[in-house]
Automatic annotation (TrEMBL):
Name this polypeptide is given: DUF3243 domain-containing protein
InterPro entries xrefs: DUF3243, Uncharacterised_YmfJ, YmfJ/YflH_sf
Pfam families: DUF3243 (PF11588)
Organism field: Chengkuizengella axinellae
Length: 84
């Protein structure tokens, strides 16, 4: 995953591909958002941001409460859906 996180564009394309795969597998928006939240929790705990965009997302994630983090997850999914 480290090469995926080198640039924010690579991360967005990686996430967009995974969202598209999830949709093709029959997952709904709610499930996809929950998975995005779990990925965010994992990244926050285990991965050091590799670029300024990821650093900003981490800082926002760290100051947000659970509901705000869920909103961020949904917004990331929307972002990559609109850039593909």
């Amino acid at each position: 995953m480290s090469t995926v996180l080198e640039t924010f564009d690579k991360w967005k394309h990686f996430l967009a591909d995974r969202v598209e795969q999830a949709k093709k597998a029959g997952m709904g928006e709610d499930t996809i958002s929950k998975l995005a939240f779990q990925i965010g929790e994992f990244l926050d705990d285990k991965v050091d941001p590799k670029n300024p965009e990821e650093r900003l997302l981490k800082e926002l994630w760290d100051v947000g409460n659970e509901e705000e983090r869920k909103t961020m997850s949904k917004l990331m999914v929307k972002l990559v859906e609109n850039t593909t």
